Amino acid sequence: MIAGARRLPTMHVSVRVPWHDSRWAGKICANPRGNTSCLILPRVAETKDDDFETSVAGTNWDTEGVRLPACAAERRAFMAPFGYTRRVRHPYSHDPRYKHFQESGFHHAAFSAAAVPFAWMMKNSDDGIPDRAKAYSLDDQSVRSKPCS
Fold first, then answer.
1. Strand partners for 60
2. Residue-wise burial string across 110-133, b where 16 or more C-beta atoms lie within 10 A, e elsewhere
3. Kind and range of the H or E element at 55?
4. Helix or strand or coil: residue 120?
5. Contact 57, 30 (CB under 8 A)
6. How far apart are CA 15 and CA 17, in angstroms?
7. With contact defined as beta carbons under 8 Å apart, do 84 and 48 qualify?
8. Residues 43/74, Cβ–Cβ less than 8 Å
9. Fewer CB under 10 Å: which end of the chain, C or N?
10. What is d(CA 123, CA 133) in angstroms, rounded to the nearest whole number?
11. For the segment 29-58, what is each residue's pLDDT rounded down to a tens digit?
12. Nearest to residue 142, comparing CAs of 131, 132, 129?
């Protein structure tokens, strides 16, 4: 352990991944039009392109992120044996206060699973420090919400 570091308790992590017809190996579904279970997720339903996915059915994802299936944003390459990069637009970039947030690349390493720590982001107090951070005395400037300038 690094000098000065604190040992925090081990925690369970759950990662939601959409159903896939041929495992989560970073491939386009073998039958994209037949996989309607992924449409339950709004972000996938709004952006799914069946014509594109059918034209490349069963192939590996574009690891450069030029053209990925809609489910890429929902961790459908969970534990894929290769890394890939996808372009990400911050969810608040439509708000004038956050318009300076630029689209950027998000790299998923091979055999990884991206997760969003929702419980760690929840703030139930006025001081801007997430309750989970307070519970572990992580209330320094690194977790404090800061206004954007």
1. 27
2. eeeeeeeeeeeeebeeeeebbebb
3. helix 50-55
4. helix
5. yes
6. 6
7. no
8. yes
9. C
10. 9
11. 899 998 888 888 888 899 899 999 999 999
12. 129
Which backbone phi and psi does 55 adopt, to 5 degrees? -70, -20
Residue 123 has pLDDT above 70, yes or no: no
> Nearest to residue 43, comparing CAs of 18, 8, 12, 77?
18
User: Which residues have a Cβ under 8 Å from the Cβ of 106 and sit 6 or more positions away?
Assistant: 85, 86, 87, 88, 114
Residues facing 86 on adjacent strands? 106
Residue-level length of the chain: 149
Burial class (CB in 10 A: 0-12, 13-18, 19+), 24: middle
DSSP track, 97-114: GGTTPPPEEEEE-TT---
For 71-109, give one letter per residue: b (16+ CB within 10 A) or e. bbbbbbbbebeeebbbeeeeeeeeeeeeeeeeeeeeebe
Q: Contact 29/23 with Cβ under 8 angstroms?
A: no
Secondary-structure percent of the chain, ordered helix, strand, coil, rounded to 5: 25, 10, 65
pLDDT in tens, 50-68: 999 999 999 988 777 778 8
Question: How far apart, in whole angstroms, are the C-alpha atoms of residue 87 and residue 13?
Answer: 25
